[in-house]
């Protein structure tokens, strides 16, 4: 438990293990570029076009009027914050670096960098959807956690599936293209906690990475921190009231043969305020083969990516560090060499 960052009451200086080389923590320029905000109460046609445009241009967008109640969003944020405020004794049993565990509390993940640690604690739930009886290892505190996580996952997964259907409509894929194995794998819900940090300019909350799954829906919280790669720079995502941030995972890039991009993002920390965000990811099943859909392949557009079992893709993602690449497409081609 002593390695949970937030369990030290106040950090007056940054421990050396969290310090990154200067070239890896270059600040975003101050140029203001906003993520598109898509109002889902507009006509289906408009929403579909807006999502496709935003997706093609930035790979990231925010959605408002998405049909998920403010109460469900607030409950999720509140329960997440409450969890990280619990006394250490209530959390110690959950601490684990074992990625095969359904529920895992971990801290300062090193990823594949020079060994530096990231300024983040994370409570992760990964389970077959729907939740069924896999909640037996779930924490029993705060007392509403189980109910809130289950409800929030159900709602955000529903939103992600609706966004995928809109994408299918817009791109000429069968509407149920992602309904089966492609979108039916483990659902992961990460409650990320980035404690206030004594020196935000020399560390990172999360490294530049692309999400390896199909789609992520993020409750970003009120405190800024998320940054999205854009033209060699970073866009600082300004939280919009009641919005979710949505981005495409690498599997969506593969399926669309690169038409939709999975874009790098990172999290910067903050010296004044702790930040809590909640990310829901949908993924293919482990045994599902995933590659460019026939609709995106032609003589002029040969497949840019190999078809791989999702299980194998994940293994390679970890070995060749796909997630931290500055150029995802180059690295996905690397996958082809590895296999
Ligand atoms: C992630 C992620 C962003 C955030 O969990 O993969 O990119 O703002 N999170 O916490
Ligand atoms: Ni991410």
Short account of what is shown:
The protein is an alpha+beta fold and about 350 residues long. The protein has one domain (about 5-295): Jelly Rolls (Sandwich), CATH 2.60.120.330. Helices cover about 25% and strands about 20% of the residues.
Explain what the structure shows.
The chain contains six helices and 14 strands. The chain has one domain: Jelly Rolls, CATH 2.60.120. Strand 1, helix 1 and strand 2 (60-64) form a beta-alpha-beta unit. The strands form three sheets. Strands 1-2-10-7-12-5-4-3 form an eight-stranded mixed beta sheet. Strands 6-11-8-9 form a four-stranded antiparallel beta sheet, with no helix packed on it. It has helices spanning 44-57, 70-85, 145-171, 250-255, 310-319, 328-338; strands at residues 37-39, 60-64, 103-107, 121-127, 187-194, 206-209, 215-219, 226-230, 233-236, 244-248, 265-267, 275-282, 289-290, 308-309. It is globular, with a radius of gyration of 19 Å. Helix 1 packs across helix 3 and helix 2 (70-85) packs across helix 3. The longest helix is centred in the middle third of the chain and has 27 residues, at 145-171. It is of the alpha+beta class. 25% of the residues lie in helices and 19% in strands.
